[in-house]
Amino acid sequence: MKEEVSLRDLMAIIKQRMMIIISFGAFGLILSAVYTFLVVTPMYDSTTQLLVNRTNDGTNSIQLNDINSNVQMINTYKDIIKGPVILDGVKEDLGLDYSVTELAEMVVIDVNQNSQVFSLTVTGPNPDEAAEIANGIAATFQSAIFDIMNVENVSIISAAAVNSKPVSPVVVNNLVIGLGVGLLLGFGVALLRYAMAKTVDDYQFITQTIGWPNLGIISELNKEERTAIIALQKQRLAAERAAKGVVAETGQVAIPKRIPDDEMPSVAVEQLESPRTAVDSAVEQEKEKQPKKHPKQHSASHSGLSRERLVTVADMSREKIGVILQNSDGTQSVDSGNKRGER
User: What is the full per-residue pLDDT of the chain (343 aa) written as tens digits?
Assistant: First the structure.
């Protein structure tokens, strides 16, 4: 496992494993899109505002103590609004299927610092229902607060309106989060594969870390080199086809050179072992069409045996070559026996 990873190594890992990272990013983006559009339920909110004013005592002057006491009373009103005293009445009036606990979780009360106005927001899966619940809670609280605390200092200054735009989920945020998580996961997988790899990617690791000499580097063919090789192969194939066409049209073949007697066996064996080209095939076809001629017989002075002289290598058959080789072996054995007898 590799212990040290530099910034250059990180950039190389990202470049080498770019497809893995992009694949995980795309996978995270697809998952977030499926969750956003198909799984999660859109939620809508509706807000109403209430004012806590001073107690009407018949005077027109506003005392600072009255304002401070009204601001402090808002915290008490928050607990009353989210309690069963108010929510039970709203549930019965509107005929809701929610429990008191579920209604309390749907209600959010926001209070500005040193302000006598507080906002009551209801969030639900139906925008019309959310606005209806918000207005019902505000009206119930305004009418019931006199019986609870014997005060009449709460008034509704803004009724809740229907908001058709969902507040959750936020599509852009979810997609960005899914893409980011996928890319991070892909980068982590790339680092893990780099750390667990047992192959050597850089020759400097061999020369500097292990201390082995660098005998050479085999470069990978690039796109231009592969294209050039393919073009060369096509040219060779076209040349062979052209040679076949010339032989078929003209019927002219190359005249083979005369081979000395002492070189016939070795040349014949090489001719049998080497692959035949298109021109050789054409020559053999032309010679099969021509009438066969019996080769002349003569005595070979070099080997001391009479054998058949072949005009060209192409006229030699496998059987004749075998006979020549056997005669050569027999002659060599006779010569060696004579030498032993002389000794």
Answer: 455 667 887 888 888 889 999 999 999 999 999 999 999 999 999 999 998 775 555 444 445 565 566 667 788 888 889 889 899 999 998 988 899 999 999 999 988 777 778 899 999 999 999 999 999 999 999 888 888 877 777 889 999 999 999 998 999 999 999 999 999 999 999 989 888 877 776 777 778 778 888 777 777 778 888 898 899 999 999 988 888 876 666 655 545 455 555 554 554 445 444 445 444 555 465 556 555 554 444 444 444 434 444 444 444 455 555 565 565 555 555 455 444 444 4
Element (H, E) at 49: strand 44-52
Give domain status of residue 51, yes or no.
yes
Long-range contacts of residues 142-151, Cβ cutoff 8 Å, at least 24 apart:
142/50, 144/85, 144/86, 144/89, 145/77, 145/80, 148/80, 148/85, 149/76, 151/55
Report the alpha-carbon distance of residue 340 to residue 321 in Å, rounded. Answer: 29
Say if 315 falls within a structural domain: yes
The helix/strand/coil state of 326 is: helix
82 within domain boundaries: yes
**SS3 for 207-236, per residue?**
HHHHCCCCCCCCCCCCHHHHHHHHHHHHHH
State which of 158, 189, 224 marks the end of a domain: 158
Local structure of 249: helix, strand or coil: helix
Both 194 and 98 in a single domain? no
> Which residues contact residue 133 at a Cβ distance below 8 angstroms, ignoring those fewer than 6 apart?
46, 90, 94, 96, 103, 106, 122, 124
**Residue indicated by tokens 């983006």:** 29
Q: Are residues 188 and 275 in the same domain?
A: no
Residue 65's contacts (CB-CB under 8 Å, 6 or more residues apart) are none
